[in-house]
Specification:
Structural class: alpha/beta
Radius of gyration: 24 Å
Strand content: 15-25%
Strand order of the largest sheet: 13-12-11-14-15-16
Length: 388
């Protein structure tokens, strides 16, 4: 939807009604991902693409009709459908496309969403794409890290969807979510599509070891853009880290500082230091702990940890800066293998982001979903939340 947002806002702000088709679900080898969009303006101009040319002709006609009649439609295009074959979707994929009329009346939150996007503030737009009550179809919710605006149809549905979409927004992902008709966690009847306007957060993994491959896989699964960095070119190769988006050969502290200076690291970035070698990890942690990062964890034994802390104090780091370090890295899961250790690290990142204490839910009465912790002192805040 991002690719049509400027044109969509301009048309709606001018008082026009636009037909908007958004890919909300894909199957098999669909040509475009969920979130791809195409709009048809009142003057017949088309902007965007949902399939790279396969179904745009049919969607153009449908979007024009929807804008004129004002009734949203959830349309499936797939190779098994005669109509889909006729419009050229022969790649074997299936697309679910929600086509809706968009105007100031049908989507009053749109201009606020566009303002957030322009300012770089994370926001997600949620649309009801399926519901037994036709009056709910096409209703919208604008979800932000601190709440929401608009309504899908009931307070219960709004809060249930907001909780889940805030999780998607934290990782910059789009998704179709299913609920009962009134937002019940169990049951079916209502489906919503959430499109997140936020770049993927980054995971920087330092140390090209077998544990790094497992951590990169977990990071990718959680929605991070993963970079593996090591100063040794013989180990830092794309073939060894297929789940990483980038594999970099550089001294870790030099690479991190360059990324910070270039504005490519932000408060959502997580750093996993797996080198457990003082000549690499101490200079790196000096840089990492002095910047606003979501998480900094370092691997090593208790002895390695104490030695590392002494070296960092000698380097001039304060107690407050050192308190931001998660070392030894991960939660106490009894992990042994690289894959189990990666799950432990991922679990700690999730727990500290959302304020979880890492205990078993079956032994707790506290709410399952937490608000994200904005404070840099993640560990102290998580412990306080868990003991309340």
């Amino acid at each position: 939807m991002r690719e049509v947002l400027d044109d969509l806002v301009a048309a709606v702000a001018a008082g026009r009604t636009v037909g908007l088709g958004t890919v909300v679900r894909t199957f098999r080898s669909a040509p475009r991902p969920a979130g791809a969009a195409m709009m048809v303006d009142a003057d017949g101009r088309a902007v965007g693409s949902v399939s790279g040319g396969c179904v745009e002709g049919a969607l153009y006609e449908l979007a024009t009709e929807v804008a004129r009649e004002g009734r949203p439609v959830l349309q499936r295009y797939g190779i098994s459908d005669d109509a889909a074959y006729e419009v050229g979707l022969t790649c074997g994929g299936i697309l679910d496309i929600f086509v809706e009329p968009v105007s100031t009346a049908t989507f009053p939150e749109l201009l606020e969403v566009a303002d957030d996007v322009a300012a770089g503030r994370p926001v997600a737009a949620v649309t009801v794409i399926e519901h037994p009550d036709p009056a709910w179809l096409g209703r919208h919710l604008a979800v932000r890290p601190d709440g929401f605006s608009g309504s899908l149809g009931s307070d219960r549905a709004d809060h249930a969807v907001c909780d889940d979409v805030q999780g998607l927004l934290a990782t910059g992902r789009n998704a179709t979510l299913s609920y009962g008709p009134d937002g019940q966690r169990r049951g079916e009847g209502m489906r919503v599509f959430a499109v997140s306007f936020a770049p993927q957060p980054r995971m920087l993994v330092f140390g090209a070891i077998d544990f790094a491959a497992a951590v990169a896989q977990q990071g990718s699964f959680l929605g991070y853009r993963v970079t593996v960095c090591d100063a040794r070119p013989v180990f830092a190769t794309p073939a060894r880290f297929p789940q990483a988006n980038d594999v970099v050969v550089d001294w870790p502290h030099r690479y991190l500082q360059a990324q910070i200076d270039a504005g490519l690291v932000d408060s959502r970035t997580v750093v996993c230091v797996l080198t457990h070698d003082p000549k690499f990890d101490v200079p790196l942690l000096e840089v990492a702990l002095r910047h606003d990062l979501a998480y900094v964890g370092a691997m090593g034994s208790r002895r390695t940890h104490h030695d590392r802390m002494d070296r960092l104090r000698e380097a001039g780091l304060t107690d407050d800066e050192l308190a931001r370090l998660s070392s030894p890295i991960g939660l106490d899961l009894g992990s042994r293998t690289p894959e189990e250790t990666a799950v432990s690290i991922a679990a700690e990142i999730i727990a500290l982001h959302w304020g979880g204490a890492g205990g078993r839910l079956s032994t707790m009465d506290a709410r399952i979903h937490h608000e994200p912790l904005a404070d840099a002192e993640h560990e102290a805040a998580a412990q306080e939340l868990g003991s309340s």
